[in-house]
Amino acid sequence: MTEQWPNHPKSFLRRHLGRNVGTEVFGLFAVLFLGLVIIGPMSTIVLWAFADRWRAPALLPTEWGTSYWGETLQRADVLTALPFSILLAGSVTLLSAFICLPAAYSFARIKFPGKQAFLLSFLATNAFPRFGLYVAIAVVFFRLGLVGTVPGVVLIQLVNTLLTMIWIPTSAFQNVDRALEEAALDVGAGRVRIFFQITMPQVLPALAAALLLTFVATFYEAQGALIIGLPGVRTMATLMYSYINNQVVVQYGAVISLILWLPSLVLLAFAQRFLRGNTVSAGFGV
Amino acid sequence: MLSALAGYALIAPPLALLLLLIFFPAAQAVVRTLLVDADIGLTSGFTTSRYTGFFGDAIARSNLWFTVWVTIVTTSFLFLVCLPLAAYLRFSTSRIAGVVQVLALFPLFVPGVILAFALIRYIGPRGTVDTFLRVVLNYTGFVTPYLRPSGIIFALVWDHIPFTVLVLTAGLRQVEDSVIEAARDVGASGLRVFAQIVLPLIQRPAMIVLCLNIIGIFGSFTIPYLLGPAAPQMMGVYMAQTFSEYQDRPGAETQAVIMFAACSVIGALYVRTVSRRRGERG
Which superfamily is assigned to A76-282 in CATH? Predict the structure, then answer.
């Protein structure tokens, strides 16, 4: 498509940038600002992960390469923490789904007194300052001998998952088209069959969103794992604290950051779909 | 129809977790700080000695005020940055708006530890920004925010941008174009339309995001721990140190309860705002 510069540059801008030129100038400024502030730091990590050598005052790595990837992945602490973290986040997510999804169905579809109040009580997980709550839990866990154990870490990470795993599926079950279910009932379908063939397909996207969000959030959860897990339990996320504080080789941290970031990229790929609806906001009570 | 009994049975497991992992530890912490004497460790009836101990300690006091200060400054910056962004995203449908949305939501996919690591390499001493200023602009006066309060504030704003923009934009989308155009037609200025028409209409989402940001920033740990100064500390860092390094569990418990008290009004406001809205809808 060839476009000629017209006699009136302002009308040209209007056609290309939308009705309001001033608004889009702000937009360009926002892109520049967010690019510098948000993409800048993240691209620095990528550069470091592929730098075999980077000495000040060079603007870019002096020698590029992937030699630190092999070295990082052979480190004993990484070798134990990576599979453990994946297993831990997976178990917490499944356990949370097992506990919360039936409750979400109940909140959406069954009538019982006090339902609203019970549903709202899960907001408490957001209403307490997170780290204060962790310390209060840690004091109790210490007396029970759960500090430094895997069950202790699983329990504290479950706290974080409750709201997401109940509120998102609850609103999904509430939005199911009841007329479809009744129609299926009229033509003689059984309740179990209706649940799996009519109800489930309608809530599946939201359930997948809840599972994915929970997995990623748990995989990254570092604060609870740090205060309850240490010294016995080390996840990838808690490993990062020591790499930031005590590790002189920058590349180790950069490589671990990129590996840690992988699940987020998966989430990012699906994000457009969740963010368009109100799926994520539903997890915060908005 | 499933009976109410089945309803209760299905919600019982997560409810039990909520009671055991949140309400019980929180309530117990409150009771214990008021009953158990810090020095003796035995139950000696009602006492406020733990609290007088906290507020008698200059370091503890300065940490608490520092946390309040960081929370207020960060929240103000957040709204200053996010309200224009959200307003822009609400009113523009251009391709530039698409880019702005992706960029603004990007931090949602970056966990705190990675953010801290990235910022140290980016704005830390001899980081990318420092090097760029030195080499390209020959400017050597860059003062790094790393290990300074400004480092915490910068990172916390970064971290909370996506959620704030997401909720504010969703709120603004519920304001009809016709309402704004009507006000414009009778000659109201852009700022006046925003302050008198738009703002009251998005009061609820704005209130929810304000409360969650305040609580989230007040109770933060990772960012102030990795990017903040050694003194004063934010409460999260101070508590972790009291609990893990000094092994002073009663002390950490007292600090946690003070944190709960400081955030209680905001927490209640959050729950009330959300529940009022759901009540109206249902």
Answer: MetI-like (1.10.3720.10)
